[in-house]
Amino acid sequence: MSSSENALPTPPTPHGPLLAPSHHRTSSTLQRHLETALAPATLNKRSASVTDQIELEEWWSLTPERLRRIFKEVDVDNDGRLPFACLVDSLRRYDLAAQEQDVTDTLTKLRSPSSDGEDDFARAWRRKSTTEVTEDEFLAAAKQLMVAKVFAAARRKKPLVSLVDFGLDDIDIGDDVEVTKAWLARPSTKRTRWVEIRGDETALRLLGIEYALHPLALEDALRPSQRPKEERYETHAQIVVPRFVVHGDALAPQVATENVSIFVAGESLVTYAASTQAPAWSRRVRAELACSFTKLREEGSNFLAYRVLDAVLDSGAPAVAALRGSIARQRDILRRSKYSSNDAGATLQRIKCDLEQILRLLRPLARVLMTLVQDDDVVDHRYNSYIEDAGENVAELEDDIAAALSDIERLAEESELYFQRSRELCGNQPVRRMR
Questions:
Q1: Gap between the Cα atoms of 360 and 395, Å rounded
Q2: Within 13 Å and on the Cβ side, how many CA atoms surround 353?
Q3: Secondary structure (DSSP) of 382-398
Q4: Is the pLDDT of residue 10 over 80?
Q5: Measured distance CA(261)–CA(248) in Å, rounded
Q6: In Å, what is the CA distance from 110 to each residue of 116, 141, 158, 164?
Q7: Burial per residue of 364-374, b for 16 or more beta-carbon CB atoms within 10 angstroms, e otherwise
Q8: What is the pLDDT of residues 85-108, one digit of tens each?
């Protein structure tokens, strides 16, 4: 079939058959209801630093729930259909379509999950089997135009993701897979899908549209300073947990923090982290999935969410251990230098800042784990014992950090005592000391 045969026909003009049935509703009635229904939604913005503020375009407020509400409010006679012009007007108000032609042009360019290369809306429009738009078609058109917006903003090839489909007896693992493959239905033998996004914000936005992720959840995922949290939305749940990465050598390590966002949407799991490399937690979960006899293969997305959560949290212990090891080394350097090593003092100050930063994240993290134990809407209550173990590990980390901070405080007191005695021996003359 030629490309011209596949092309969608140009939609009728406002004076064409779509608006012909005058008994459906008057233009003034439509206008009043559109003004009410299409008033921009107000999202509950959370506070963030100026440099860390993430704010999506207004059209991201068109969640499936809101689109359904708009449709029902405009559909004043409750017949479940709207003129095509109403669809265009609705989308135009959110800068999704400049004119009617944009709607049909977009339908020819976007991905399609059906076997014949067209979605239901495109097929119906090509056949002209309907002169009006149903609620499902209304949502489908909005969704596809959102996807087109994201692709247009990216201005590059399609984003890549890692895709894992697995069941009890079978598993498929793909790296550097085009994000559109994540929209295709899972094979019948695969129970669960895991989409891992490594640093590609465009991929996250596209999957946010596909899985109807709430715009506030996307903002939280994209915000580097977002604190640990757990939240449930209409179509999914979100967990944000910190991952701790050690840089530098054993003498002067530094710990960086990267958030990992976990989205549980039915039997699909989407994870996002800013790093573009395969992290240790991902390799660990994949290795477990590769074994057919593991509990992870027997369970679904809820248990996978827990395993990802647990693997990410396990980055905390080696990070704190590296900092405590450095404290011991810097203590030896200080004592050998008679507390005059400025480098050691600066390193200890950095370590103290890192420890305090980790501690600030562990406290809300502990509350997230407690919430997950109390409410099994996100992670099944059958896994409570595992989450409680993770909570105990967080408590141990807090104790280790408290001990490390005490070690640094004792070193400061030890240094002060040394110089106090030195001044006494030198008749209160100035003594060179560590800054």
A1: 13
A2: 11
A3: GGHHHHHHHHHHHHHHH
A4: no
A5: 26
A6: 14, 11, 12, 23
A7: ebbebbeebbe
A8: 777 777 778 777 655 566 656 544
**How many percent of the chain have pLDDT more than 90?**
37
CB atoms within 10 A of CB 76: 15
Strand 192-198 to strand 268-273: parallel, antiparallel, or no bridges (unpaired)? parallel
Are the CB atoms for 299 and 168 separated by under 8 Å?
A: no
Helices (H), 211-268: 215-222
Amino acid letter, 39: A
Average pLDDT, the chain: 79
| Rounded CA separation 155/33 (Å) | 36
* Burial group, residue 232, by CB count within 10 angstroms (0-12, 13-18, 19+): middle
For residues 309 and 141, give the distance between their C-alpha atoms in angstroms, rounded to a whole number.
Answer: 35
- What b-and-e string marks burial along 176-209, b requiring 16 or more CB atoms within 10 Å of the CB? ebbbbebbeebeeebbbbbbbbbebbbbbbbbbb
d(CA 374, CA 372): 6
The per-residue pLDDT for range 340-376, each reduced to its tens digit, is 888 888 899 999 999 999 999 999 999 999 998 887 6
Is residue 50 a contact partner of residue 121, using CB atoms and an 8 Å limit? Answer: no
144: Cβ contacts below 8 Å, ≥ 6 apart: 106, 107, 110, 119, 121
Q: Is the CA virtual torsion 354, 275, 305, 233 positive or negative?
A: positive
Please answer whether residues 222 and 260 qualify as being in contact, where contact means their C-beta atoms are separated by less than 8 angstroms.
no
The first and second tokens of residue 305, run together, are 């969410």
The DSSP code sequence of 17-54 is GGG--TTS--HHHHHHHHHHHTSPPPP-PPP--GGG--
Burial class (CB in 10 A: 0-12, 13-18, 19+), 26: exposed
Q: Is residue 67 scored above 70 in pLDDT? A: yes
DSSP 339: S
Round to the nearest angstrom and report the end-to-end CA distance of the chain: 78
Q: Is 65:117 a contact under the CB 8 Å cutoff? A: no
Residue 243 has pLDDT above 80, yes or no: yes
